[in-house]
Amino acid sequence: MKEGPDIARVAALLGDPARANMLTALMGGKALTATELAQEAGVTPQTASSHLAKLEAGQIVIPRKQGRHRYFTLSGPDIVEALEVMMGIANRVGHNRVRTGPKDPELRRARVCYDHLAGDMGVALFDGLSKRKLIKTDLNGVALTDAGVDFANGFGIDLAALRQNRRPLCRECLDWSARQSHLAGSFGAALLDRFYDLGWARRMSESRIVRFSAEGEQKFRELVGD
Amino acid sequence: MKEGPDIARVAALLGDPARANMLTALMGGKALTATELAQEAGVTPQTASSHLAKLEAGQIVIPRKQGRHRYFTLSGPDIVEALEVMMGIANRVGHNRVRTGPKDPELRRARVCYDHLAGDMGVALFDGLSKRKLIKTDLNGVALTDAGVDFANGFGIDLAALRQNRRPLCRECLDWSARQSHLAGSFGAALLDRFYDLGWARRMSESRIVRFSAEGEQKFRELVGD
DNA sequence: TTCATCATTCGATTATCATCGAACTATGAA
DNA sequence: TTCATAGTTCGATGATAATCGAATGATGAA
């Protein structure tokens, strides 16, 4: 006992409902102000301020001052990873929130998972790219095929730039709502960016929902080979 | 807000020091009894029982009754993953436990990370296999090379059997003590098993420490090309 | 059966912490 | 300057939950 790093301190910081709501909101990838986070968490600004001070002291979030606002972001990809894993666990053991709001169906359909597409359409994307043999999955994980490289270039994705990053190009990410994998990694993020740029989809404000336009969805269906 | 699975409930279960200590102990891979876990956590049996009831209700651990003992194990690999990620975060932000016991140096040298080798020697293994080009790391992660496959067969590892499993063969796992990657996945686990079988090393009881014999260490050094 | 050990339940205590009202500071706009 | 908004600090309140002593049930050993 008394071995190693202190998990409890980190876990306790994620273990309060108000803080968990804030962090989940920050998984959207956008920096949010203290008041926005207070609303997300459903608490008063005073309470939110106290929570944010704790999260900041624990180096879970990083504040950035701009004018009279303070914008908060998650302190690193490891935080995202931790939240993702815990969502997977919570989903597996059936720890869903008591009230599932009206936004729930849309969320399960298409949402942003920090920077890539998740939900049913995220899973469809993964399956579609696999079926078209643009990505392949083996025991070592997911990888882009030669055909996939050609596709990426044709689709307007600069693979060379992505490779600059230390981050893996392709990564599986367990989708808590669909119980299947969707595509993460820098390639997954780049795909979603292209969907935005092409006008196929856009982020709903104040939410993780990704809404596709009619044409956008049709193009998407063609892409995944439906 | 009010979207998705309830992270907070899971995180709160991991967020108590006593429970975190218990779970860390279970990362050793062995099933432990309630009293053993009470000792690990540094609390009385009554308190431990209360914690274990909570963990069981939250499906974080699974009890198995045997005689008058109750043996507990982690409920799935996702729990291990969550604990690992949180250790990484805790280490990054410097949340180490206040008292670092006398076992600390040995732990940092060689310990079991659920089922594979971690610590300095775990990192040395990863580096050694890379240098000998038995494994390779690219943007898609770690993979066994052709030479690596030959090596595994010669070393007494049944890759065909490992492939039965859905689990990835090779996986990087961030070592919290060395701040570098060591080798996880079913191949990583199989390697450690062989070290045990060959008598190179053995598990210390009541701890995650892996202790190498003198000859064992020498063989290990040859293996990693020192 | 009798005894010892493992584990749980109950009850009481204690400490921690989330919460919010009120007051205060800081920044920007008019 | 004056006003409005963003955010924090302080203090009080209330609820939750961790802890352990004592008692109870359950299993195996003698």
UniProtKB/TrEMBL annotation, chains A, B:
GO biological process, one term: response to cadmium ion
The organism's taxonomic lineage, starting at the top: Bacteria, Pseudomonadati, Pseudomonadota, Alphaproteobacteria, Rhodospirillales
Domain of life (superkingdom): Bacteria
Residue ranges annotated for the HTH arsR-type domain, each copy included: 1-94
Protein name: Transcriptional regulator
Species of provenance: Thalassospira lohafexi
GO molecular function ontology, one term from the record: lead ion binding
Pfam families reported in the protein's UniProt record: HTH_20
